[in-house]
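From the shared-data thread, chain only:
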Amino acid sequence: MDERDRLATSFGDMRRAMIPAFVLDLLATVDGGDELSMTQLATLYVLDAGEPVSLGGLADRVGRSVSATSRLVDALVRRGLVERREHPSDRRVRRIALADDGDALLRRLERTRAEAQLEVMNRLDPAERALVARAMTLLGDSARQGREKRDPP
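Structure, as tokens:
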């Protein structure tokens, strides 16, 4: 088994331990039992990564047409999860941003995933837990650096 296969197996084991709690919390979080689609959730995470974006820029990032993305944004605006904002230097241009409720939803889901991960990590001895925590910090730092290169200010 090569490194990629070992990593895929390990991630699979972690997903099976963590994803059910994440998905159940997501379903419980959404008001009125109206579930978020995977595309809507992915869109929230795209918007969480930085500054407000144009509709066309968001469409490129989520891999949908501008028309489909506009309908997607409309649905998320109605739910209070995203908002349209005026561009600071051109009032004719609208930018899409994560709303406070959308941010709160993502933070809650992150806490749920963290709690599930900590439950798994609690089976490790203290030195192993410290090693995993350090590895997660390194991975987070690497992900931020990659995002900064992809989305310069």
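The two ends are 41 Å apart (CA to CA).
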